[in-house]
Each structure stands twice: as structure tokens, then as C-alpha cells.
Amino acid sequence: MPEGRARISGNIDEMNQGPATQTLADLYASHRGKVSDKWTIYLKVYEELFRPYRASKLRLLEIGIQNGGSLEIWSRYFESAAVLVGCDINVACTQLRYDDPRVHVVVGDANTDHAERAIAVYAERFDLIIDDGSHRSSDIIRSFVRYFPRLEQGGIFVVEDLHCSYWQEFEGGLVDPWSSVSFLKRLADVINHEHWGKPYRRAEVLRSFESRYGAALDEESLAQIHSIEFYNSVCVIRKRAREDNELGPRVVVGTDAITAAQLMAQHGALAVADAQNANAWSVLPPLPEDELLELRSRQKDWLQTEAELRVELEQLDARVGTKDQQLNHCQQELQLTQQQLRTTQTLVEECNGQLVALKDEVRAIRASASWRVTLPMRKLADFLRRG
Ligand SMILES: C[S@@+](CC[C@H](N)C(=O)[O-])C[C@H]1O[C@@H](n2cnc3c(N)ncnc32)[C@H](O)[C@@H]1O
Fold first, then answer.
1. Residues known to be catalytic
2. How many distinct structural domains can be found in the chain?
3. Which range marks the domain in which residue 131 is found?
4. Is residue 352 part of a domain?
5. Which atom of ligand 1 is least distant from the CA of 64?
6. Binding site membership of 132 for ligand 1 (Cβ less than 6 Å)
7. What are the tens digits of pLDDT across the range 130-154?
8. Partners of 151 in the beta sheet?
9. What is the pTM of this model?
10. Distance in angstroms (rounded) separating the CA atoms of residues 133 and 64
């Protein structure tokens, strides 16, 4: 390993005594060359993070260089850097020229094998990787998966402009389970893998990102994630050897204990997580995002069913309306018929009255003297008529 790189994972104080004098903010303030675009807080955070690396033979990769100014400034800030590679998808970047022979530009989509190979021509591995590319969640996650294995142990991976993770245009949102910040937060679980109390592989908690973005880190790479720090819009992931990331034996020192004296016997003990078999919140699958997806698809079904039921209800309403009309019509006809019936009954009653009067008249005629006197004559006339 070259001298500078050996020093990166070595004594930080020793590295602090590098020749550099101007801070990053100074360099940005006095810069006159190619344009660079960073937010103020980045310069402050980077000063703390990068100072220990200034005197080292650093290998830097920046994804997304635009006008190329940041590469120019990095080359001044990291005076002892061995190589500084910038990658940008914009073909206009082919025009970028640098006098500094340590600076190289690769034009292409950083998330392709082609660009990765072109980058590897200048350095197989890097001590500092800065992702300032498209800021879309898919690109950030894919770039991390692709280039973290190329990060040297003791190195730093920086993701910039994470405010985009909260915006839909960049494939994000405050609680978007597949946003870049959601992915990065999950790395905190990966770091604490030994305490899960479940026999899951580290990659299990990143499974949904794997299926969504087709990108996954192997167990060894995940075991080398040493820390993850969030700043406003910036995330910093440090890489160290697997053994540097283990909790290690317990350190209990001292001779006087006013309480919990049994702790003293724990000196040198290793952490053993209690099995979390009865803990519903430790069970995979489903991951919360999978459950959310399932719920959303069910909600879609419910909405569809609700829409279908609404249509059905409208059809039933229309049928009830038609039936109501028919009922009204029938009721009107019934009223008419009842009226006619009442009129007919009145007529019948009148006829009956007349009939009774006629019968009385006939009875009166038959009982009269003239009827009886003329009876023999009418019988004779009847006899003659029959012949
Ligand atoms: C914010 S600018 C970079 C600014 C620069 N780092 C600076 O500090 O001045 C983002 C750049 O990322 C580039 N970019 C977007 N997607 C990319 C990808 N997939 N691979 C490489 N570069 C990409 C864009 O072309 C753009 O120039």
C-alpha cells in the first residue's frame, strides 16, 4: 500500500500536521477558475472530515462534476492527492481540461459498467468518493452499491444534496420507503447487525431496495460499514475492516461500586443478543415498506370495489326511480278505476230503485179490477194466437 494510503487509517494527529494552510472555505472564497456549486454547510462539514486526509496520497472520485470547478478546488485542497477522478454524464464535460496531471475526467453514466471500467483505469480503489450526481434516489443507491466496494478501508463515502430525497422529482418524499435517505437510514441497522437477535443476513433489511433498484451489496461489504453520519443534506459513510466494526469485549474497570457490583464480573464479556423470536417487531418479512406496498395495493382494490359499488348503486337508484314512476302510474289508474266503480255502483243502485218501482206498479196492475175483468179475453186471445 502506498505511504499516503497507509497513513489514512493511521494516526490522525500525525496527518493533521500536513502542509495545507488554506481551509476549503478559503479556497472556495478565492476561487476564480471553473465554476463549482456547493452549499455553505458542506464546506464546514468537509473541513472537519477531510482535514486528516489533506497530507495523504488520496485517491478521490467525484460523481457529477458539471463545470469541473470542484475537481479544480479538490486538487488544491488535497495537495498531496495521488489522483482525482471526476465522472459526469454530460458530454459537454469532454471539453474540461486541467493542467494538473492528477486530474482525470470520465464522461458517462457513473452507474454503468462502462463508466466504472473507465474510472478504474485511473484508480482501482478510492479513499474519498463524493456522489454529487443526479441526486435521484435510484442513482444514489445504485452508485453506493457500485462504488462502496471500491472504497478503501479507512475511506469515506459522501452523498451530497440529500434534500432532493424529500422531493418527488428526485424519486423521494418525506416517508418514501425507497428514497435515498430511507436506504441510508437502513444502513444504521446494518451497522448494528450483531444485536438483531435474529439469524438474518445484513442484506435482508435492504432486500426491498435490491428488488426495486436491482442493486445489492454483499455481506462482506456491508460488514465493512463502520459509521453513518447525517448532516443537513449530506450523509457520510465510513468504511473500516470488519473487525473494527464489532462491538468487542465489554470494558468494566474500577474497584469501588456503590451499586450493580456484579457488573465488574462482566469485564471482557462479549455482547450476546437475546433471541428476538417472540418479538413481532424483529420479524422479517415483511419489511415495513413491503407491508406498505401490500396495503396500498389492497387500498387500490378497495377503491376499485368502491367505484364498482358506486356504479351499481347508481344503476339500482335508476331502477328504483323507474319503479317509483310505474307505481305512481298504477296508483293514478287505481284511483280512476275506483271512481268509475263508485259511479257504476250509483247507477246500479238507481236501476234497482227503478226496478222495485216497476215491480210495485206491475203488482198494482195485476191486483186491479180491470185486470181481473179482462183476464178471460186475454186468455182467449192467447189461445187463438197459438192456434
Ligand atoms: C450538481 S452537479 C455537480 C456539481 C459539482 N460537483 C460541483 O461541485 O460543482 C450534478 C452533475 O451530475 C451529473 N450527473 C447526473 N447524473 C449522472 C450520472 N448518472 N453519472 C454521472 N454524472 C451524472 C450532471 O450532468 C451534473 O453535471
1. 135
2. 1
3. 3-246+269-280
4. no
5. 12
6. yes
7. 999 999 999 999 999 999 999 999 9
8. 126
9. 0.75
10. 4
